[in-house]
Write a structure and sequence with these properties.
By secondary structure, this protein is mainly α. It has 3 domains: about 70 residues, no CATH class; about 160 residues, no CATH class; about 70 residues, Arc Repressor Mutant, subunit A. Helix content is about 70%, strand content about 0%. It has 14 helices and no strands. Helix 5 runs antiparallel to helix 6 and helix 11 crosses helix 12. The mean pLDDT is about 85.
Length: about 325
């Protein structure tokens, strides 16, 4: 039974489990061990090195669909990665094989329809395994590289988002066939009913897992990409300045005036009128500036002017 309550850091962890026993598996995926007594969510998370804000964001979302975690920057990517990786391990290494064994025990292996049910389940398992292995091979290493400050021009989270499609069509077919196939003898009927119950539980869990990826993980990685791109621009500007440490000294006052005019969006003719010089002189100044700074574009000169305090960014025509 689920309790439609928004849980907070000072709530006791035992209350979360008492109200929502389905969270037991989530605790394991976060790496939280049982035996925490009457400690609060915050205390348990702090002791077991789990980010409290991220834990509650996932818990409240999976229980109540709550998306109020508007402070995306507060979400811990390392905690999310631990949760997703452990979820994959649980589903691939335990849940899928367990249900396969249950189906085998519940079905008559000499029955053609039973063999078809097992084949349909194996096809479903294969599609889920491929989907999760794609994430393990492509998505998670990509995020790890972003966390290290490395950029990747050949992959982004949008590529993953498009790949992140539905994989539950075969499972719906399987459930439908089992319901229609249920044998009449009580022994097989009971075992198959129990297996069907486990399949429904796993389907619900997998759906929650996919929603966490779509609604929490992907937005967080989009934000990380934005930061990475901003940092990359900052590094390029820093390198540009480092490569020309004496540039501000070797520029003449008139050349600085030309750079300021370029940053303000003026054409060569407008600069000439503004500085009361000829257009040819402006062209000569710009040629000398490019030689000294190794910067040729108006955008590059604008950045140079801003970082060297020649202009205020508010006066720049972007």
């Amino acid at each position: 039974m689920k309790n439609q309550k928004m849980y907070e850091p000072d709530d006791k962890m035992i209350y979360l489990i008492r109200d929502n026993y389905g969270l037991l598996q989530s605790l394991g995926c976060f790496g939280i061990s049982l035996g925490f007594g009457d400690k609060t969510v915050r205390e348990v998370c702090d002791e077991q090195n789990v980010d409290t804000y991220t834990f509650l964001a996932v818990v409240n979302f999976t229980i109540n669909g709550y998306k109020g975690f508007d402070e995306v920057d507060r979400l811990s990517i390392s905690t999310l990665m631990q949760y997703l990786r452990a979820s994959h391990s649980y589903y691939l290494d335990y849940a899928l094989p367990f249900i396969r064994r249950e189906l085998t025990a519940a079905l008559d292996e000499n029955d053609n329809l039973a063999r078809l049910i097992l084949r349909l389940y194996d096809e479903y398992s294969h599609s889920i395994r491929n989907h999760m292995q794609y994430e393990e091979k492509n998505v998670f290493p990509y995020v790890d590289s972003l966390l290290k400050g490395e950029t990747n021009d050949t992959y982004d989270v949008e590529t993953y988002s498009k790949h992140h499609g539905q994989t539950d069509v075969k499972l719906r077919e399987l459930k439908s066939i089992i319901i229609k196939y249920l044998p009449s003898d009580s022994h097989h009927n009971n075992r198959l009913t129990a297996t069907l119950y486990d399949i429904y539980n796993c389907e619900e869990w997998l759906d929650q897992h996919a929603q966490v990826e779509d609604e929490i993980f992907i937005p967080v990685i989009r934000r990380l990409e934005q930061k990475s791109k901003q940092n990359d621009v900052s590094v390029k500007i820093s390198n540009m300045i480092t490569q020309n440490p004496e540039s501000n000294e070797v520029l003449s006052d008139r050349e600085k005036d030309v750079i300021v005019s370029v940053a303000q969006g003026m054409t060569n003719k407008e600069i000439a009128n503004h500085l009361c010089i000829s257009t040819n002189t402006v062209i000569t100044h710009r040629r000398n500036i490019a030689r000294k700074l190794q910067i040729h574009s108006p955008a590059g000169l604008t950045i140079y002017a801003i970082v060297n305090n020649l202009v205020d960014i508010s006066s720049v025509k972007l």
